[in-house]
Design goal:
Strand order of the largest sheet: 7-6-1-3-2-8
Number of helices: 6
Radius of gyration: 15 Å
Largest sheet: 6 strands, mixed
Number of strands: 8
Shape: globular
Helix content: 25-40%
């Protein structure tokens, strides 16, 4: 990463483990934290969020260098690694905590989110209309330690092998030119 200032992006697109695994691989991303946002309960637990009464979505907060990867490109990746056309659902994961949501950190991010969503719609990347919510970030609550970097820590688990690994493999193939390079 260069010496420039970093920015934050906060995105929810289903289980945060999937987004976490993808964004950690992107060149220009220095940190990914799984957590909760978009709801009304302070400092929620995973169990509370899964109980569907907190209003929170499972999200990732991404620290990135905008001179290496733009916010728009982070969103373009976002719209290819989850289904933004299903309300409160990603595959077998169902509930408001799995909704497609972009939580913006500035008016500029809100503008870019609208522009990228219009681009995705115009390019007909999905057969159905986008249901992705765009809201101003009010508060981000980091998730528990066991939810951080879950895919790398537990690649043998059933969910990782069946759900996350295929998404990561597809992402790596589609965005090979954007992946972090191994240290020499």
């Amino acid at each position: 990463m260069s010496g420039t200032a970093t920015e934050l992006a906060t995105l929810g697109g289903g289980c945060f483990w999937c987004l976490d695994a993808v964004y950690r691989d992107l060149n220009g991303v220095s940190k990914v934290v799984s957590g909760y946002s978009g709801g009304h309960v302070e400092n929620p637990s995973y169990e509370e969020v899964c109980g569907k009464k907190t209003g929170h979505a499972e999200v990732v907060q991404i620290t990135f260098d905008p001179t290496v990867i733009s916010y728009a490109d982070l969103l373009r990746v976002f719209f290819t690694i989850h289904d933004p056309t299903t309300k409160d659902r990603q595959g077998a994961d169902v509930g408001p905590q799995y909704r497609s949501i972009i939580l913006t950190h500035s008016p500029k991010q809100a503008q870019v989110a609208g522009e990228v969503m219009a681009e995705v719609t115009a390019n007909r990347i999905w057969d159905a209309p986008l249901v992705t919510e765009v809201e101003k970030l009010e508060r981000f609550w980091p998730g528990e330690a066991e939810h951080q970097d879950y895919f790398a820590r537990t690649p043998w688990s059933g969910y990782c092998r069946v759900v996350i690994a295929p998404k990561v493999a597809k992402f790596r193939k589609s965005y090979a030119d954007r992946l972090k390079r191994p240290a020499a």
